[in-house]
Amino acid sequence: MGEEPCFTGRRGSGTIFFAGCPCHCLFCQNWQISGSGSDAPIVSEDEFYRVALGLIQRGVHNLNFVTPEHYWPHIEALCARLRDDGVKIPFLFNSSGYLLPAMIPRYAKLMDIFMPDFKFADSALARAVMRDERYPERARESLRLMVAEKGFLEPFDPTGANPARQGVLVRHLVLPGHVDNTRRALDWLREEFGRWLPLSLMSQYQPTPAARRQPPFDRPLARHEYDLAVEHAENLGFENILIQPAPISDDFFPDFSRRKPFKGNPD
Ligand code: SF4
Asked: Is residue 255 included in any domain, yes or no?
């Protein structure tokens, strides 16, 4: 239930988290599983299928593959099998945006929804956080291709009464001490896609153990920084924007050492 209401609706989004992530962000909230030393369980293709089926049988509105790109052959096989079985719910590709553009058409054959981040417009910041200044260029190209493949999210219903079926919603996390990065990211999104682009502007930044050693990432986002980001988005005229209410609860800040990583989820 911790995803955007467009995806969680009333019965939740069926998130499946994959271990490992090519980005290695300093502030990753999934740091317990996204680094290279994760001891996340290994499952066979049949177990993977049963996990997905279990979620579908619980009535989730979509299957939501989180950081999926490096497991793509397995996900591709799973999704093809589920469609052959008559499963109709949307499949959602939930990623950093740091992708090989040549792979997007292949993802789009099976995925209905893309939810990419657009984290950094500033290549120096990308280098500082994930040690790769190519992020802005790669993510821009990926986002263009995703929107060309699927269009904007439909329906875009911030109440969650009509969960999304298809299209693209872009996420951006506002970082402490880096409101200028947010302004530049929003400027580019507005210029490239116009004011109807569905956008989730996130304020939930919390320092991870690694980030606590590197100011300004060693503190939560200040409310006035988030307010400046929202003001900029409003000045740019974005119409389909999800804004996080204050204060941010830690209900959906994960702890993967627990059997139930998100305490805000029902049992
Ligand atoms: S892209 Fe997301 S999952 Fe990957 S390291 Fe960065 S914050 Fe974590």
From this structure: no
Cβ–Cβ under 8 Å, residues 150 and 113: yes
Query: 15 lies in a domain?
Result: yes
Taking 70 as the pLDDT cut, the residues of the chain under it are 247
pLDDT digit string, tens, across residues 191-230: 999 999 999 999 999 999 999 999 999 999 999 999 999 9
CA of 85 to the centre of ligand 1 (A): 32
The domain spanning residue 94 has which CATH number? 3.20.20.70
When divided into structural domains, the chain yields a total of: 1
Q: Which tokens is 184 given?
A: 């530049």
CA of 20 to the centre of ligand 1 (A): 9
* Residue 231 resides in a domain: yes
Q: Atom of ligand 1 at shortest distance to CA of 67?
A: 3
**What's the pTM value of the predicted model, to 2 decimals?**
0.96
Measuring CA to CA, how many Å separate 160 from each of 27, 84, 155, 242? 29, 28, 10, 12
